Amino acid sequence: MQVLKSWLKDYVDIKLSDEELVEQLNLTGTAVEGVSYSFSDKIVVGQIKEINPHPNADRLQVAKVFNGQEDLQIVCGAPNIAVGQKVPLALIGAKFADFEIKKAELRGIESFGMMCSERELGLGDSHGGIKVLPEDYEVGKKLIDYISSDTVFEIEITPNRGDCLSHLGVAREVAATTGESIKVPEKIVLNEIKNNLIDVEVEAKDLCSNYNAILIKNVKVGSSPDWLIKRLNSLGLKSINNIVDVTNYILFDWGQPLHAFDAKKIVDQKIIVRRAGEFEKVKTLDGQDRSIPENSLVIADKDKIIAIAGVMGAANSEVDSSTTDIIIESAEFDSASIRLTSKTLNLSTDASYRFERGIDSGHVSESARYAAKMIQEIAGGEIVDVKISESKIETRSIKVEYQKINNLLGLDLSENEINSILTRLGFVCNANLAIVPTWRHDIAIWQDLAEEVGRIYGYGKIKPIALEVINCEFDNDFTKKEKLKNELANIGFCETVNYVFLSASDLQTNKIESSDLLEIKNPMQNENKYLRNSLVSGLLKNVAKNPSFDPVLLFEIGHVFDKSSEEVNLGIIASGKDAKNKIQEAKELINSLLKKPLDINIIELNRDELTRYKIRKAVTYIIEIDLTQILTNLVVTKDTDLRLNKTVSNYKQISKYPPVVRDFAFVVDREINSEDIKKHILDFSQDILLVDLFDEFSSDKLGQNKKSLAFHIYFQDLNKALTDVEAELKIKPLIEEIVKKFKAELRG
Amino acid sequence: MKGTLHPITKYLNETTEIFKSLGFDIFEGPEVDTEWYNFDSLNVAANHPARDVQDTFWLTDGRLLRTQTSNGQVRYGETHKPPIRAIFPGNVFRNEATDAKHETTFVQLEGLYIDKDVKVGHLFWILEEFFKKVYGDDIKIRFRPHHFPYTEPSFEVDVEYRGKWFELLGAGMIHPVVIKNMGLDPEIYSGFAFGLGIDRLVMLKYNIEDIRNLRSGDLRFLKQFN
Questions:
Q1: E strand spans, A263-325
Q2: A728-747, pLDDT tens digit by residue?
Q3: How does the average pLDDT of chain A come out, rounded?
Q4: What's the Cα-to-Cα distance from A579 to each of A352, A496, A572, rounded to whole Å?
């Protein structure tokens, strides 16, 4: 949600800088996600050094403008520019309401920025020429250093704080945080005349606790005053007409959603607030025909629905240019009901958003009067009737548990200090009770008060308290599982992690019946339709995805699901060169860790299956075991630290394009560490993605005290498929480097 | 010739070892669970907007894929007597469209501590200890107020890393309703809980460009982590 600093200042003095205010708000619970200015901070004071006519356009000129560091060429159509002037210069990257400055070419001449008019800066209406700046403005400085641009704060409000969804609400937080007082809006007194011109009947009293209707006759529907349009525009809203704009304005000003009906379009001017029946329909203001879900709260007249309560009005009672009499609605509707209706219709509006989260129960009537008064001032008209249907506003009180609050926070605040914080937030403290303000629907228990006290007092002031560390040897499955992973990695298998999902096409490829599987109701993506009942399909996909590696040795430990249970399985796959030996090695490894050996089944995929899974390798073997069979049977060893050595590899981004792989074997002295060679190769070029040691042996045949190290080296280009020729070009210097650095010999 | 462990596994092992050394048990709950264990028991009411924040994978049989590992917390609380200290690693799921920054599946690590007279200061201490062990003694952390239905007060915890503040985890004092749902008396017992996203930490640590790499099964990715 966006709030304007100038608008907040209607309700609270702000003496802090923008940075300080943002920090304070963040630290007390109002998260500020971003700060922007009504004109960009990429607009600087520039000085025109030279002006030349544009060779290809009569109405354009080419200026050289100094931006504090260099001269920029700017193409400009303004008639009032002159050499020596100081001007607002928008640099590349400066953002305006609906465009961003980029390098441009205007009639064949490049332009590297834009000089701005008053209107473009949001400072006025003048657009006939460039805004000329005063002489004393320093070239190169940001314009916002001189002309205050309104600050726009992008605020993230948590779901429990519906009260912050308006400028008044945020202003209250600013006041509580900074210690300033809130400038409470003056109570509005209207010269109301109570006639019987309109009537309100609330049938669904459980869903509507408060309904205010004000009839204003003889308004002039037209355009809104500039100040109103400007404020709405600053929030990204369009101006519609003076009546609708007032209702929108008050929603963002005080947080009360309002609606304006054309009174003459309401039968007998009698409003009924009721539940919708089974098959009711309405065309809403956005032009859409909608079927109203049964039991939704609606505003209606005798014949038709005139609004989906709290969500959107109907087109049939819309205020348009011919309207002369309007009824302003200000009401409180049940949160859960509005939410359900909004979800079912898939229609979320600024109004419904606020009703869902709770509006200020104590400000409903005042908001109606505010709207009526503003409309009178802007559009004329006389207020001729006011009807209110109201259930009693309950004041809620909570016992302030001073000791418990202090205890939980680890503080020692006096009752006065606690009361003073609560009072700053709008609570009324009396004896040991705090009356909860009508705008706070999230306060119910003393812990809620503790949070209010803690966050305003400042969590930075709470000291950490040490916990006694228990030296406890918990025997848990997690540690056993992780040790098993270590063992498998040690014999050459890489751990993979796959999604738990299967798509319909996965089912086909794997020949699985969907009736065995758990199914997702409304997946956003088709890939997420079913839950896997085995790790096999994921592992097979992994193999198919790694054509540049031979062999592919992988394992996964993950959850599998069917209609009766959820299990954790271990899956192992070996595909390609020496796969049979490797899978056998894995089987023997597992059994070596168990008290009693398991009968582990190794499945070999046949040619047909390999084709279906798009695996090109000659042979593929799989093992899948229920992990509990292993864990309960594991030989108990002393609990070892699972942390491995801390060397962090410099991760390199993977290209979208396939790598070129080359194998090299070097003969080096036995003392040389293969890791050092590996690191050196990786550092040699950004295009070397991976270095994989695949063979190591010592033999005197190679020379005294020598060994051979063989590496797969993977070359890639991030932007294209590397050709063999291109790869060859990189290889020669690499080999030379390794031979030189490690006194190595390249084996034929 | 040596294989590799997945970077998430490696990172998770580092973090679980730290909590183990502080006396925590490790418990893994089910990935498919009921609405009760994932939402209602955690004080996330049926009609509350807080349910919107997470897009949930609902199963046709009425259950769901858990959106946090707190289901494990409630189950653990039901079967263990206080004092309780345990961490809960595991997959959690969001029904979203995936792209380089968005995923359907994450690994989370949550923690739970329940005893008599547990204070906010205890939570701050545990988290400071944890981050010091991961990032060194001069790590800076700060606690900002936030909202979770299952904790009150609630916090977001930021860590200063490479010159910038990162929001790394959520935490809070367990809501009395949740304590009650674990079968314990909230007048006697209190506690705290915290949760961190392991995927995100892994992405930050290695500067990984696309979150989907983590579950791609691509050996060009997996083999970089040894």
A1: 270-275, 281-283, 289-291, 297-300, 305-308, 312-313
A2: 888 889 999 999 999 999 98
A3: 92
A4: 61, 17, 11
- Spell out the domain ranges in chain B: 7-138+173-222
- Write out the H or E segment, with its range, that includes residue A260: strand A258-262
Q: Can you tell me whether residue B96 is helix, strand or coil?
A: coil
Does pLDDT of A646 surpass 60?
A: no
Confidence of residue A264 (pLDDT cuts 50, 70, 90): very high
Fold of A477-631: BirA Bifunctional Protein; domain 2 (3.30.930)
The 3-state DSSP class for residue B51 equals helix
Task: Read off the tokens for B22.
Answer: 């502080």
Q: Are B9 and A479 in contact (CB under 8 A)?
A: no
Check the CA dihedral B16-B19-B23-B28 and report its sign. Answer: negative
Domain spanning B7-138+173-222: which CATH class is it, in words?
alpha beta
d(CA A170, CA A12): 10
Residue range A676-700: average pLDDT?
Answer: 90
- Among A646-655, A716-725, B216-225, the minimum mean pLDDT is found in A646-655
- Whether B28 has its CB under 8 Å from any CB of chain A: the answer is yes
Averaged pLDDT, A113-139: 86
A519's CB contacts (< 8 A; 6+ apart) are A529, A530, A531, B59, B60
Domain with CATH 3.30.930.10 in chain A: 477-631
Angle, helices A242-254/A226-234, rounded to nearest 10 degrees: 50
Q: Using CA atoms, how far apart are residues B159 and B147, in angstroms rounded to an integer? A: 19
**Number of helices (H) and strands (E), helices first, in chain B?**
7, 9
3 state SS of A204:
coil
Domain with CATH 3.30.56.10 in chain A: 2-38+151-178, 399-452
**CB-based contact A654 B213, cutoff 8 Å:** yes
As to burial, measured by CB atoms within 10 angstroms (0-12 exposed, 13-18 middle, 19+ buried), residue A17 is exposed
CA nearest to B103 within chain A = A499
Amino acid type, A37: Y
In the block, which residue shows the tokens 């050196």?
Answer: A680
Flag if A496 and B222 touch (Cβ within 8 Å).
Answer: yes
Residue type, A125: D
Q: Which residues of B touch A465 (CB under 8 A)?
A: 119, 121-122, 124-125
Q: Taking 80 as the threshold, does the pLDDT of residue A638 lie above it?
A: no
CATH architecture for the domain at A2-38+151-178: 2-Layer Sandwich (3.30)
Rg, chain A, Cα only: 36
Higher local confidence (pLDDT), A696 or A120: A696
**Cα A576 from chain centre:** 43
CATH superfamily of the A660-746 domain? Ferrodoxin-fold anticodon-binding domain (3.30.70.380)
Is the confidence at residue B53, as pLDDT, over 80? no
Proportion of chain A above pLDDT 90, given as a percent? 77
Q: Token pair of A251, please?
A: 């929603």
**Which tokens in the block code for residue A400?**
């302030």
pTM: 0.86
Instruction: Print burial letters for A679-701: b (CB count within 10 Å at least 16), e (below 16).
Output: eebbebeebbbbbbbeeeeeeee
A642 touches chain B (CB under 8 A): yes
Give the separation between CA A530 and CA A451, rounded to whole angstroms.
42
Say how far apart CA B97 and CA A528 lie, in whole Å. 10
Report the alpha-carbon distance of residue A588 to residue A594 in Å, rounded. Answer: 10
Cis peptide leading into residue B149 (ω within 30°): no
Interface-testing mutation among A467, A555, A648, with chain B (most B C-beta atoms within 10 A): A467
Q: Ramachandran region of residue B185, left (φ > 0), alpha (ψ -120 to 50) or beta?
A: beta
